[in-house]
């Protein structure tokens, strides 16, 4: 039933945006000394090899995380003289946090392993917190369980081979009324778009003060275009603050190569919609997003947007 495997896409520009935002939110939520429950509705396999078969086939990390960690190209002697007086801009703290976390899964400066959302979240939680991971794909659920078992995290982390859209209901509201829901479907089924909005509407009724984080692809499809609008309406109806960040790395049009063959451009852009974001998130992304455009942008269409409201 499911053909999507995140291993082909791990570490791509969408993961960079998604995981940078996720880390910035979690770091803020962890500052309070009270138990936090995190629900990851679409968890994936948890850990990915960037030098493995899947990732090597698609090479998507090369245009994502690997661009961020690559040293800047050496300037020509003439450029070097001109630029000598201008020190390189330091990385935005949110991007540095993201790179530090990914680096902690690797040794010797190489980037062979990429942590998916389960390991990113788990790495930022404390002993009192709880993480519930939903994954439906039989192979990925098995891999996820095996990866999580190695952590020996006991009751802190649970893997549920269940539908994440439905499964989160039983955990809302969390006992200490502190919670984050990450919703990151593959959208391979068109109905996922509607299910995301339905899930958020229902979750806001159960737990209005939770932080809801939704990733979505920006592609020429009406459902994808409408999703952030629907989420904004839900937040406004609930009287809750929201934040919407998007990152475009390239042109979305189909291109024709020299032989007249139509080239699929791959995912050109994606967005993160957050309901009840930490008050620090917008300022953090204001610094990070222009640097992501500069480092991950592939053509003149590269851009970001950052909106928020109540
Ligand atoms: N969140 C992961 C990360 O950031 O590393 C990536 C998740 S990937 C985009 C989406 C995953 O959702 C896939 O592994 C897919 O098998 C799984 N999936 C699809 N439909 C699902 C559902 N209804 N409930 C739970 N998992 C589902």
Q: Can you characterise this structure?
A:
The strands form 3 sheets. Strands 5-4-1-6-7-11-8-12 form an 8-stranded mixed β-sheet, with helices on both faces. A two-stranded antiparallel sheet has the order 2-3. The longest helix is centred in the first third of the chain and has 17 residues, at 13-29. With 310 residues, the chain is α/β, with parallel strands linked by helices. The chain has a single domain, classed as Vaccinia Virus protein VP39 (Rossmann fold). It has helices spanning 13-29, 53-58, 65-69, 77-83, 93-103, 117-124, 138-149, 164-167, 191-206, 222-238, 281-296, and strands spanning 37-40, 47-49, 113-115, 130-134, 157-160, 179-183, 211-217, 242-248, 255-256, 262-263, 269-275, 303-309. Bound molecules: S-adenosylmethionine. S-adenosylmethionine binds at residues 2, 4, 6, 18, 42-44, 116-117, 134-137, 140, 163-165, 184-186.
Compile the SSE list and pairings.
Elements: H1 13-29, E1 37-40, E2 47-49, H2 53-58, H3 65-69, H4 77-83, H5 93-103, E3 113-115, H6 117-124, E4 130-134, H7 138-149, E5 157-160, H8 164-167, E6 179-183, H9 191-206, E7 211-217, H10 222-238, E8 242-248, E9 255-256, E10 262-263, E11 269-275, H11 281-296, E12 303-309
Parallel strand pairs: 1-4, 1-6, 4-5, 6-7
Antiparallel strand pairs: 2-3, 7-11, 8-11, 8-12, 9-10
């Amino acid at each position: 039933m499911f053909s999507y495997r995140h291993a082909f896409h791990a570490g791509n520009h969408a993961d960079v945006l998604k995981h940078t935002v996720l880390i910035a939110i979690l770091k803020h939520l962890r500052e309070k000394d009270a138990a936090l429950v995190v629900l990851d509705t679409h968890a994936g396999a948890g850990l990915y090899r960037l030098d493995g078969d899947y990732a090597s086939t698609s090479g998507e990390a090369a245009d994502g995380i690997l661009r961020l960690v690559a040293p800047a190209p050496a300037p020509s002697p003439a450029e070097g003289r001109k630029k000598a007086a201008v020190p390189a801009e330091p990385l935005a703290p949110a991007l540095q946090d993201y790179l530090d976390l990914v680096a902690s899964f690797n040794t010797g400066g190489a980037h062979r392993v990429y942590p998916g959302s389960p390991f990113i979240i788990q790495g930022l939680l404390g002993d009192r917190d709880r993480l519930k991971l939903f994954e439906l794909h039989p192979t990925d659920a098995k891999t996820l369980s095996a990866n999580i078992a190695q952590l020996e995290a006991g009751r802190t982390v649970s893997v549920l081979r269940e539908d994440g859209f439905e499964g989160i209901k039983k955990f809302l509201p969390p006992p200490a009324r502190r919670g984050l829901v990450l919703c990151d479907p593959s959208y391979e089924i068109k109905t996922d778009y509607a299910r995301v909005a339905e899930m958020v509407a229902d979750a806001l009724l159960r737990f209005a003060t939770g932080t809801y984080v939704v990733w979505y692809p920006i592609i020429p499809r009406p459902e994808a275009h409408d999703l952030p609008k629907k989420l904004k309406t839900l937040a406004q109806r609930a009287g809750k603050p929201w934040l919407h960040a998007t990152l475009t790395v390239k042109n979305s049009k189909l291109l024709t190569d020299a032989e007249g063959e139509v080239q699929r451009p791959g995912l050109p852009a994606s967005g993160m919609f957050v309901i009840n974001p930490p008050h620090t998130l917008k300022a953090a992304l204001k610094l990070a997003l222009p640097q992501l455009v500069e480092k991950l942008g592939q053509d003149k269409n590269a851009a970001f947007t950052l909106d928020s409201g109540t």
